[in-house]
Automatic annotation (TrEMBL):
<dbReference type="InterPro" id="IPR017452">
    <property type="entry name" value="GPCR_Rhodpsn_7TM"/>
</dbReference>
<feature type="domain" description="G-protein coupled receptors family 1 profile">
    <location>
        <begin position="39"/>
        <end position="301"/>
    </location>
</feature>
<dbReference type="InterPro" id="IPR009133">
    <property type="entry name" value="TAAR1"/>
</dbReference>
<keyword id="KW-0472">Membrane</keyword>
<feature type="transmembrane region" description="Helical">
    <location>
        <begin position="59"/>
        <end position="83"/>
    </location>
</feature>
<dbReference type="GO" id="GO:0005789">
    <property type="term" value="C:endoplasmic reticulum membrane"/>
</dbReference>
<dbReference type="GO" id="GO:0007200">
    <property type="term" value="P:phospholipase C-activating G protein-coupled receptor signaling pathway"/>
</dbReference>
<protein>
    <recommendedName>
        <fullName>Trace amine-associated receptor 1</fullName>
    </recommendedName>
</protein>
<keyword id="KW-0297">G-protein coupled receptor</keyword>
<dbReference type="GO" id="GO:0007189">
    <property type="term" value="P:adenylate cyclase-activating G protein-coupled receptor signaling pathway"/>
</dbReference>
<dbReference type="InterPro" id="IPR009132">
    <property type="entry name" value="TAAR_fam"/>
</dbReference>
<keyword id="KW-1133">Transmembrane helix</keyword>
<feature type="transmembrane region" description="Helical">
    <location>
        <begin position="252"/>
        <end position="274"/>
    </location>
</feature>
<feature type="transmembrane region" description="Helical">
    <location>
        <begin position="134"/>
        <end position="160"/>
    </location>
</feature>
<keyword id="KW-0807">Transducer</keyword>
<keyword id="KW-0812">Transmembrane</keyword>
<feature type="transmembrane region" description="Helical">
    <location>
        <begin position="23"/>
        <end position="47"/>
    </location>
</feature>
Amino acid sequence: MQLFCESINGSCIRSSWSNSIRISMYIFMVCIILATVAGNLTVIISISHFKQLHTPTNFLILSMATVDFLLGFFIMPCSMVRSVEHCWYFGEFFCKIHTSMDIMLSTASIFHLSFISIDRYYAVCDPLRYKSKINTFVIVVMVCISWMVPAAFAFGMIFLDLNLRGAEKIYNHVHCAGGCFLIFSETSGIVASIVSFYIPGFVMLCIYRKIYSVARKQARSINAISRKKMEFEMKHDISFCRERKAAKTLGIIMGAFLICWTPFFFSTVINPFMNYVIPPIIIDALVWFGYLNSTLNPIVYAFFYMWFRRALKIILFGKVFQQDSSRTHLFAD
């Protein structure tokens, strides 16, 4: 049995896995981290560089890609070492910083998705008033809320130890030198899950259900008059199809988020009521399953968005450094 530090009483026990298992875990997690960082960095460069992509929805996607990039670049590497070694080598204060940022960025993702669903609602269900409802000021407000509220919630909860109120006994029992554990009491687990996941998730599902219903009705109407179109109507229908495809794509992104994070938030709620019977290794695996969502988002863009694939080619071949490359047309207006 190896301890984190032999000279310290109450030191954490390091993992007893063989070197082959550790190396395999490191390789697997490094691949996830690299895919997360590279994929989201490509989204950030694409939307920032190409002027054609400077739209309200894309600015929200840009902000969300920044969240996923930071999660992959700053949070996941430290989590990787903790997951494989079962020890925390970066100090108690940085443990609080890491945990706070982890909660903040995870919560910020679903806040972004909530606002993206609102954006898609107006684009598909009320297109005539879309530009007046979703303008630059509204987008800035959405982005600020998506960052500031999760930051205040996460850092306040961790640094004020609000998550431990009512769970002091279990924390004192499992706490050890060289550990970095996130423990919720019954109350804090419910509050954190409701604020960070369940309420925003329920709102998104309701909005996308409405979008899907309206899109189907509009599709039937378009099919009914498809043989009597004027040139203006053709342009309107192309625009509508683009908006509907964007809504579908973002709906898939939202579904991926719910699938990836639901197991973790469900366990966060039930674990305190079951006297913390869920093994820490399972909780850790659920966290990484949630992290995987940040890896999947750029893959969804690459699969569904032609502009992303074209932008990726331009970036990979270095054409992004050419003069006036920012004015490149990635799709037909």
